[in-house]
Design brief:
The structure is a single chain. The relative contact order is 0.16. This protein has an 8-stranded parallel β-barrel. Strands 8-9 form a two-stranded antiparallel sheet. The chain is built from 12 helices and 10 strands. Strand 5, helix 8 and strand 6 form a beta-alpha-beta unit. Helix content is 42%, strand content 16%. The chain has a single domain, classed as TIM Barrel (Alpha-Beta Barrel).
């Protein structure tokens, strides 16, 4: 199926206020946003009005994003230790955040929230994997109770491991936010082959590009869409196997020309999107 709508990740634009977010989204020429919801529940003094401000500017929120407490992306090792809902020391805070965020998303009519689950152990018998599955099942229920689906972002584990975990969770409201660049950044496999495997579970796609790390155990590098290692022609063909219409959200987390890079990505993906770039 074709991609349904095109939007941009709010955090990619590095706004410092709701009004600034509106201005930066408008500069891209887009009118749809995946909204970072963590500041909405953790920094209410600055961000509590963001949904109202976006609506007044005729900008729509088509999904949300949860950044779990305590994540440290300094190195692959630090994010493996701190990412997602895996660490015991931050689990209580992340459960509390999920409960608050689910209410906000439900009231706002945001039907999908995405997050990195954390590095899911590849060994099915690993006790830590069982604990993570239990936590993800609980989170799925918290969001589902508010009418919100939950999608795990690809990259921190292989497609095969993610498939197994999705099977263990076994909820219609749980799926995948597919990010092809993350598969490269984390060295977790070929994005095109991963799309084919995960297609039945994909709920949203990020448009992001990267090149592999030069040395094993280090980060790859994110680059403007169309200039990295993602085979976009093959990727878009593979996306046609997704059995539902999903949105394409442009994400750019590096570089000093974010708006220009978003515009570059728009030109790359626009022909694939059912409702165009507006």
């Amino acid at each position: 199926m074709p991609l349904e709508r095109l939007g941009v990740c709010s955090w990619s634009l590095q706004p410092d206020s709701p009004a600034d977010l509106v201005s930066r989204v408008q500069e891209t020429g887009l009118s749809r946003v995946q909204l970072a919801l963590t500041p909405v529940v953790s920094d209410r003094e600055r961000w509590s009005t963001v949904l109202e401000v976006l609506s007044e500017a005729n900008l729509s929120v088509i999904s949300g994003m949860m950044a779990p407490v305590g994540e440290d992306y300094s190195t692959l090792e630090t994010i493996a230790q701190t990412g997602g809902i895996r660490p015991d020391m931050t689990w209580a805070a992340n459960e509390a955040m999920a409960r608050a965020m689910a209410v906000v998303a439900g009231k706002a009519g945001i039907g999908l929230v995405t997050l990195h689950a954390g590095f899911l152990p590849h060994d099915r018998e690993d006790a830590e994997r069982g604990r993570m599955v239990d936590r993800l099942q609980l989170m799925a229920g918290i969001f589902a109770d508010q009418g919100v689906s939950l999608a795990f972002e690809t990259g921190q584990e292989s497609a095969d491991t993610l498939l197994e975990v999705l099977s263990d969770i076994d909820r219609e409201t749980v799926g995948v936010n597919f990010d092809p660049a993350n598969m490269i950044l984390y060295a977790m496999g070929d994005p095109v082959e991963a799309v084919k495997k995960l297609a039945p579970h994909i709920m949203q796609i990020h448009i992001k590009d990267a090149v592999p790390a030069e040395t094993p155990g280090s980060w790859g590098s994110e680059v403007p869409a169309g200039t990295g290692a993602v085979d976009w022609d093959a990727f878009f063909v593979a996306v046609e196997s997704v059995p539902r219409q999903v949105d394409a959200i442009i994400e750019r987390e590096a570089g000093d020309a974010r708006i220009e890079d978003v515009r570059t990505a728009i030109e790359l993906v626009r022909p694939q999107v059912k409702t165009g770039a507006a």
